[in-house]
Inverse folding.
């Protein structure tokens, strides 16, 4: 179909320059849709004027179309369920109902709403009423439109371009700091702030601190006699010792803590530390000073925990850290036996464990939070040093996810083999430390 002929037919319904141009958006570059629409209408008008000399009637009909003085209101009224009056209907764009005129106002409202956030990239998301999308689809079908842009992309691109121009920030489609969700028809604006991620490694220097916040089991955090009205089973957690200073600096709403595995409450985390990512939800500040953050955390935690190598991270690092839970670990444990053990017996344990596979069914003590499965875990090396008749120090290098306390006790036969089963002597861990997390993730 001839281009001008198509434009002429489309204009049976009044179309604003934006909506006219959008139907041919893929023809030519570096031209905004409204300019494209304006040009097409001008071209049709010129054609109309030209025809006045040879075919007066045809010329007039073209001009009427361009200037929307024919029976188009009639068509609009038939298709639209919008009970607006005739005068309002006049020259109202059939596709957008003049919504493109509202864009400047929406842009300044979005800019205003973004003012309280620090960000370097953003994205504009657009929601359109169902009937608007349907009307445009029907229109495109009717005129076999094949070079158009969707109204959604058109609106979002236009608003994004104007915001970027006026505040000097970049549009980012893949990973924006902030998303402005706009419904130009209802004039709704919602700001969605994406999380900020900081990764690092932590050391736990004293016993008795859980990794996650732990509420009182009696009152679920409300406060009761059991917890002396603190609502807590444990007063502090690594999550909070790290999270509170982060939250304060980034002015976020809340945090989520992601550790590459976790140690028991009574276990130290030594060596170069355990990798973690802290996710700050709805931060107002993103360009936080990580040196200051490290200082603040370490000062608040005063020798209980210590963090280092803080860097900005992203969602992918969280995923990798979760996977790295199974990275290799080195533990040190003080083992106590229920009877005297000989150096020879300890040597037997050492040989049996080194380079072996352990079949470990989920320990009874973590069954409440982990599925009941039997896992195969590799031990790369084990060393035992006799400390006294009934005590020994165990140093073990193993695959992450192996529960060491159960490797020692046997957990009533759920871990096979175990220190206890190898020499048939009841045994338990009275102290456990993580000496190193190997192949940890850097953000
Ligand atoms: Zn329009
Ligand atoms: Zn309580």
């Amino acid at each position: 179909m001839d281009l001008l002929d198509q434009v002429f037919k489309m204009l049976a319904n009044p179309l604003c320059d934006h909506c006219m141009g959008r139907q041919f958006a893929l023809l030519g570059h570096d031209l905004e849709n409204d300019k494209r629409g304006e040009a097409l209408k001008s071209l049709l008008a010129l054609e109309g004027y030209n025809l006045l000399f040879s075919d007066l009637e045809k010329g007039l009909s073209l001009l009427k179309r361009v200037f929307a003085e024919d029976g188009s209101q009639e068509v609009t009224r038939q298709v639209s369920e919008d009970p607006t009056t005739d005068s309002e209907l006049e020259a109202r764009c059939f596709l957008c109902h003049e919504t493109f005129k509202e864009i400047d106002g929406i842009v300044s409202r979005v800019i205003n709403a973004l003012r309280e956030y620090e960000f370097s990239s953003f994205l504009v998301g657009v929601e359109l009423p169902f009937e608007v999308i349907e009307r445009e689809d029907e229109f495109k079908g009717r005129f076999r439109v094949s070079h158009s842009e969707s109204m959604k992309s058109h609106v979002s691109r236009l608003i994004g371009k104007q915001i970027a121009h006026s505040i000097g920030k970049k549009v980012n489609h893949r990973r924006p700091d902030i998303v402005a969700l706009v419904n130009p028809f209802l004039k709704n604006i919602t700001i969605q702030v994406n999380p900020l991620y900081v990764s690092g490694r932590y050391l736990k220097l004293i016993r008795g601190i859980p990794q996650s916040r732990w509420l009182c089991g009696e009152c679920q955090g409300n406060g009761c006699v059991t917890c002396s009205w603190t609502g807590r089973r444990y007063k502090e957690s690594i999550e909070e010792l790290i999270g509170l200073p982060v939250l304060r600096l980034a002015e976020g709403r809340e945090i989520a803590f992601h550790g590459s595995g976790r140690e028991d409450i009574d276990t130290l985390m030594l060596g170069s530390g355990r990798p973690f990512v802290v996710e700050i939800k709805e931060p107002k500040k993103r360009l936080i000073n990580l040196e200051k953050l490290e200082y603040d955390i370490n000062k608040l935690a005063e020798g209980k925990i210590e963090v280092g190598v803080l860097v900005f991270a992203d969602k992918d690092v969280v995923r990798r850290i979760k996977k790295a839970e199974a990275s290799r670990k080195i533990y040190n444990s003080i083992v106590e036996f229920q009877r005297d053990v000989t150096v020879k017996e300890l040597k037997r344990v050492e040989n049996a464990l080194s380079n072996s596979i352990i079949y470990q069914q989920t320990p009874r003590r973590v069954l409440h939070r982990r599925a009941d499965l039997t896992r195969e875990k590799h031990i790369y090396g084990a060393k035992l040093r006799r400390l006294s008749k009934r005590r020994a120090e165990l140093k073990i290098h193993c695959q992450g996810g192996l529960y060491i306390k159960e490797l020692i006790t046997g957990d009533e036969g759920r871990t096979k083999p175990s220190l206890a089963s190898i020499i048939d002597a009841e045994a338990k861990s009275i102290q456990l430390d993580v000496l190193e997390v190997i192949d940890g993730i850097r953000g």
In short: The first strand starts at residue 121 and ends at 126.
